[in-house]
Design brief:
Order of helices and strands of chain B: HHHHH
Number of strands of chain A: 0
Largest sheet of chain B: none
Structural class of chain A: mainly alpha
Number of helices of chain A: 1
Distance between the termini of chain A: 93 Å
Helix content of chain A: over 70%
Oligomer: heterodimer
Shape of chain A: rod-shaped
Strand content of chain A: under 5%
Largest interface: A-B, 39 and 40 residues
Order of helices and strands of chain A: H
Helix content of chain B: over 70%
Number of domains of chain B: 2
Strand content of chain B: under 5%
Number of strands of chain B: 0
Largest sheet of chain A: none
């Protein structure tokens, strides 16, 4: 009985189709937001990795400077 | 004694040009890092904006799904009669948890005390309750 077919008024059906279309658009919008967020996150990760390397470079240069200035 | 203390002292730098170059290069690297940091901050801001937009879109999707549910014809396809008692039970458990959590928070001061009245926590509780209700309904249908 629970699985028996149900009928929707044609006016309501139009509304349902409209809602479904809007829902599809919203989901697509959400997906594009997520794609952009993901891309930004990847860029941030790459940048953080580069920062680590660059800070190591700064540290090395500082060591060289220290050697020439403090322990000539 | 004072005279010797006031005298300037000098140290020898073996390769001054190299040292100066190193100093300038280090300074340049640090400035570049600062510049990148500013760009990074802009990216973070953009990401935060996108997250907010995503939240709004998800909320709208949720509202639309609710609307869709209301558009569906009223039939006897309903959660079985024992379900309200289950839902009530779940809500009671949720209330007890809330009371326990607020009790813990009352004993602590400062930031955690602010969380007790934090609307974000209330929203999270509401979402959790809605999720439990949906799971119960799905279980009843299966």
């Amino acid at each position: 009985m629970d699985n028996a077919p149900v009928f929707i008024k044609i006016d309501d059906y139009k509304d349902v189709v409209d809602i479904l279309n809007i829902l599809k658009a919203k989901i697509s919008e959400g997906k594009s937001f997520l794609d952009e967020i993901s891309a930004l996150k990847n860029e941030e990760d790459v940048e953080l990795e580069q920062w680590t390397q660059e800070l190591i470079d700064v540290e090395r240069k500082m060591e060289t400077l220290e050697k020439s200035l403090i322990h000539p | 004694m004072n005279k010797t203390m006031n005298e300037d002292l000098y140290t020898r730098i073996e390769n001054p040009v190299f040292t100066r170059k190193q100093l300038l290069e280090t300074s340049k690297l640090v400035v570049l890092l600062l510049q990148k940091f500013e760009l990074f901050k802009e990216k973070r801001k953009r990401r935060q904006e996108l997250l907010e937009q995503l939240k709004v879109t998800l909320k709208e999707t949720h509202d639309l799904l609710d609307k869709l549910k209301k558009e569906m014809p009223q039939t006897k396809i309903r959660v079985k009669s024992q379900m309200p008692s289950k839902i009530e039970k779940m809500q009671k458990i949720s209330k007890i948890q809330k009371i326990k959590n607020s009790g813990k928070e009352d004993s602590e001061e400062g930031e955690e005390n602010q969380n007790a009245v934090n609307p974000k926590n209330e929203t999270l509780d509401e979402i959790e309750n809605a999720l439990k209700d949906l799971e119960l309904k799905l279980k009843a249908l299966s």
